[in-house]
Backbone:
């Protein structure tokens, strides 16, 4: 008994003190109190963690931009203080003189490229919104992207008062060899760099950065670069998504397309729009909207290095920078601009303050649809990079953003200068060289772009982005067989910017031309990855939800009156066409878009992108007068009205038009009895004099002329009947 007492026992066998169940009960009570206390702290925002972290930042002893265990060891004397490594070379600690001399909106050095092809804008969209007080207007350098009204269509919600380029000359329809970089501005740096500049103490934060419109910024490597209205435009080196790189990337004087697959206004960008319409309306999505670029496994293997964005001065004022940035992220853009402006006044040598001001002005430009504010943002990005003692990562980020915004405003030469300086400052960064290659393509300088990609591939032979673009250039130079391995290996690499519908398009087309039966395998893969509506329907600028079938009847289109008028007056239309053919001035212009395998094919255009060619109509006045009564065709800004003459021995390669927003009518005028036929998808038909054939040229089609005399038809494009009136007004021209 004494022994039991000594050990705290009782006669009944129970141990003294708290029982196991009582101890567990008290443990749970304390644990729950702790949990609810934590919830209360977070819920009622009792602690300003950003302020605490900002204060701890001043104890950063090892120069890595945050306060951590290593810093504590240094402060306690357990570890030697490491000498801070300069983030920029000594010679660059002074302001960059080239940044101060750079003319952002001017024409740039004449020895760089004398002709900036505004057509390069088939990447952005010529859409200008003149109906919103301080709407963004495309700059003179060339149309690129515009900030669009909220109720418009991304990258293309043009109003009736849309900008019309000044000048004459035939406008090209986008060809199969047109590369629209809807990502043409390079992909925005990375989210770490873009939106976590003031959160280096918390690199693992998983909170997405949301702007005032509720948009989350994504990794910029593989997105169609869009900030002004989620998918509205695109530029990118890792972002080549939406600028129109053409064949030789030179504007052509005429656009030859039997079934229109190609004309793009030289001053337009074809930036497809994702309609943000009433629920019942369909949406148009840019070519890369559905792209699934990166292999998740590859993404996981690449660990991004944390950028160094704060210099010594910015570390001491980090709490103030964070407070201003917090306003921006909460959507209080005007307040954030004011806060950063005060910081710039207070700390004029702070690159973080100027960069924050630039980002806020960028957001405000979107919010107000203002080119003027966007120009201020460009200037602020330049100023941030040109201050002394700017971390190299921030220099890179600021200049990339500056280049992107210059491209967006159509300042292609200014953007090119910025990209050239980026490559000079960071010669080992191949992604910047890739962006530079895109910059050259955007001004039509294929040769310089080719040299850049050759240089990249010499250093990094497995760079997928460089491969697909190098292959694209080779194909544009008609080096079809040589282009195939580059396009194929580039797509297979899975690198950012390579899973783009245009590359599948060109790879399949190249394979078809050399007789490689794997072409449809790649078309199928492009379809599976969301780039094509189907294996047959491979247009890149589409409105989702429209009825899709290769061949149509007049009744199905709803345009029966137009068809009847064409068929009733076919002889009048024929006679005016023959009269033009008989003239010696050469009014029929040869097709020059590399659609022919062989032969002779020319056309005479009366309407292009919804614009009447008054001079051409003088040659066919009665035909033009007849068509003036039908706005479904004369107002079709994604089509043409033209005569097409094809001579014996001509074969047109299988190809597709650029958009599903139109249907194409062929009126037979002079048709040989045998030898002329057209295939659309898997059905082949022949023309009849005085009869109209209607097909959707976004489906693959092919033409043969094996007769003994010429074939003359009249081509009339009409809006797809299911497009709403708003869409017909808003969709950008192609």
Residues:
């Amino acid at each position: 008994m004494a022994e039991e007492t000594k050990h705290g026992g009782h006669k009944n066998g129970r141990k003294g003190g708290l029982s196991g169940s009582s101890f567990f009960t008290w443990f749970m009570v304390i644990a729950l109190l702790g949990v609810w206390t934590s919830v209360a702290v977070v819920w009622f925002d009792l602690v300003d963690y950003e302020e605490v972290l900002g204060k701890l930042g001043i104890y950063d002893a090892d120069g890595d931009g945050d306060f951590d265990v290593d810093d504590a060891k240094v402060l306690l004397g357990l570890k030697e203080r490491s000498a801070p490594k300069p983030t920029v070379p000594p010679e660059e600690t002074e302001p960059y003189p080239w940044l101060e001399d750079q003319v952002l909106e001017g024409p740039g050095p004449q020895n760089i490229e004398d002709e900036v092809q505004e057509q390069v804008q088939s990447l952005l969209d010529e859409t200008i919104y003149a109906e919103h007080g301080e709407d963004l207007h495309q700059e003179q350098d060339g149309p690129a992207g515009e900030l669009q009204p909220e109720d418009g269509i991304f990258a293309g919600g043009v109003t009736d008062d849309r900008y019309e380029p000044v000048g004459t000359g035939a406008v090209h329809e986008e060809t199969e060899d047109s590369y629209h970089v809807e990502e043409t501005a390079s992909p925005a740096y990375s989210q770490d760099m873009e939106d976590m500049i003031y959160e280096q103490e918390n690199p693992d934060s998983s909170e997405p950065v949301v702007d005032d419109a509720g948009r989350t910024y994504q990794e910029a490597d593989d997105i169609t670069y869009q900030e002004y209205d989620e998918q509205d435009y695109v530029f990118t080196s890792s972002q080549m998504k939406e600028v129109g790189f053409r064949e030789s990337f030179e504007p052509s004087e005429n656009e030859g397309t039997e079934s229109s697959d190609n004309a793009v206004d030289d001053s337009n960008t074809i930036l497809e729009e994702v309609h943000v319409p009433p629920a019942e309306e369909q949406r148009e999505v840019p070519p890369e909207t559905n792209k699934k670029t990166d292999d998740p496994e590859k993404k996981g293997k690449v660990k991004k290095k944390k950028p160094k964005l704060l210099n010594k001065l910015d570390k001491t004022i980090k709490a103030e920078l964070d407070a201003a940035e917090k306003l921006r992220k909460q959507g209080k853009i005007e307040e954030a601009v004011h806060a950063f402006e005060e910081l710039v006044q207070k700390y004029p040598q702070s690159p973080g303050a100027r960069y924050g001001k630039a980002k806020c002005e960028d957001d405000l430009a979107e919010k107000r649809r203002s080119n003027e504010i966007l120009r201020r943002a460009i200037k602020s990005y330049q100023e941030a990079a040109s201050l002394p003692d700017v971390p190299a990562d921030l220099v890179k980020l600021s200049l990339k953003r500056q280049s992107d915004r210059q491209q967006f405003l159509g300042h292609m030469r200014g953007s090119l200068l910025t990209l050239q300086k980026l490559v000079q400052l960071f010669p080992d960064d191949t992604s910047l060289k890739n962006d530079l290659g895109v910059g050259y393509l955007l001004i039509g300088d294929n040769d310089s772009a080719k040299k850049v990609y050759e240089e990249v591939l010499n250093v990094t032979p497995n760079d997928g982005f460089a491969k697909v673009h190098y292959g694209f250039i080779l194909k544009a130079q008609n080096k079809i067989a040589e282009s195939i391995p580059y396009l194929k290996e580039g797509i297979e690499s899975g690198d950012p910017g390579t899973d783009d519908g245009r590359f599948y398009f060109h790879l399949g087309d190249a394979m078809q031309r050399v007789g490689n039966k794997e072409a449809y395998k790649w078309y199928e893969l492009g379809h599976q990855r969301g780039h094509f509506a189907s294996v047959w329907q491979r247009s890149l600028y589409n409105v989702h939800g429209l009825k899709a079938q290769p061949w149509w009847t007049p009744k199905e289109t709803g345009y029966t009156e137009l068809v009847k008028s064409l068929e009733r007056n076919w002889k009048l239309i024929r006679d005016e066409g023959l009269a033009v053919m008989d003239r010696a001035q050469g009014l029929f212009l040869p097709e020059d878009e590399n659609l022919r395998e062989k032969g002779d094919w020319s056309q005479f255009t009366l309407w292009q992108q919804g614009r009447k060619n008054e001079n051409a109509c003088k040659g066919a006045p009665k035909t033009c007068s007849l068509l003036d009564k039908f706005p479904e065709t004369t107002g079709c800004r994604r089509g043409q009205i033209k005569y097409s003459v094809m001579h014996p021995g001509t074969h047109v390669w299988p190809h597709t038009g650029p958009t599903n927003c139109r249907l194409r009518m062929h009126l037979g005028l002079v048709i040989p009895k045998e030898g002329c036929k057209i295939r659309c998808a898997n059905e082949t038909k022949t023309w009849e004099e005085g009869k109209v054939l209607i097909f959707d040229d976004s489906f693959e089609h092919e033409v043969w002329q094996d007769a003994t005399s010429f074939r003359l038809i009249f081509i009339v494009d009409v809006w797809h009947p299911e497009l709403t009136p708003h869409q017909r007004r808003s969709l950008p021209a192609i």
About this structure: The first strand starts at residue 179 and ends at 181. The mean pLDDT is 74. The CA atoms of residues 261 and 657 lie 4 Å apart.
